[in-house]
What we know:
CATH class of the largest domain: Mainly Alpha
Strand content: 5-15%
Number of helices: 11
Number of strands: 11
Number of domains: 3
Radius of gyration: 21 Å
Strand order of the largest sheet: 4-5-9-8
Structural class: alpha+beta
CATH architecture of the largest domain: Up-down Bundle
CATH superfamily of the largest domain: Butyryl-CoA Dehydrogenase, subunit A, domain 3
Distance between the termini: 46 Å
CATH topology of the largest domain: Butyryl-CoA Dehydrogenase, subunit A, domain 3
Oligomer: single chain
Helix content: 40-55%
Amino acid sequence: MDDLLRIDDQLSDEQRLIRDTVKEFVADRILPDVADWFEEATFPVKELAPALGELGVLGMHLEGYGCAGLDAVSYGVACRELEAGDSGLRSFVSVQGSLAMFPIWKYGTDEQKEEWLPRMAAGDAIGCFGLTEPDHGSDPGGMRTHAKRDPSGDWILNGSKMWITNGSIADVAVVWAQTDEGVRGFVVPTDTPGFTAPEIHRKMSLRASVTSSLYFDDVRLPASAVLPGVKGLKGPLSCLSEARFGILWGVVGAARACLESAVDYSTSRTQFGKPIGAFQLTQEKLAWMAVGLGQSHLTALHLGQLKDAGTITPRQISFGKLANVRAALDIARQARSILGGNGITLEYPVIRHMNNLESVLTYEGTQEIHTLVLGEALTGLAAYR
């Protein structure tokens, strides 16, 4: 399918090489099996993680410690190609690099960085990010998980988290908790006594992804477990901004995969003596899908350029996350309609992407929260409470 706006012509030679390398990996290692993984609700993360490390996409936007140190647009392009395979694949890379590695890289001690970042960049250690709780999703400031110092100077962590990607297979968790000093981040090895992470089952979305709860029952951590470089919600929210940037690029890949499937189907499926793509109603759907994809792609590229220039703001990332996820979901739903009954089978990627995007619409800030972020930006009035 032709890129109508020739957006990738604006990429550098290195960025196009990253695009082609990740796209080939997805074609070889993901697409042949991902429908089965989705149907069976499995994802071979332990096997794929070292391969993704060798590919260089784990923490690829960070510098040092075995990370590639690439620019934001390169990271975005990689996320786009990963999510063209499956949102679960891109979620793993986002969680590993932006939610688990980034806070250690940005706010951790030299010892924490040396212990975890090289292994995580290589895919030899898997990380997760503990912020969302059963009763506190959009309002993380109300979290109940807490950590208190005991007379020895150790921290004692208690509480729970929910909807945690990679939780049950992680080697390390970056956990945010209330303390007497405000919200603090902790680097928690998952083999610490009192830490448990049961997997969440019966999902109808992101099935090719590991999702877990986290429980902390008097988890004893040394003083060296705390991330010293940040206090308050600024810490976890900065991590979410990093992850949302990957999302607003990634969903362009999911949308593109749906449009490609719809175009291929509409030009080969014959009804009333001609391909359904020759009917005006089908062409109108395809045209609007292409417009939505192009607009999302341009938004992602512009925000990537702002990030590389060091001028991007959280509000702009909210704009991209809100607009691009909604556009991708609309494209997936239109593609599903073009495929008719075949659109609900895993013989085609559309229903898988459509179901996955229902989760992407919600995680890393719901549609409603990002709407209120933009509303406040426009009016100067906060409407969260």
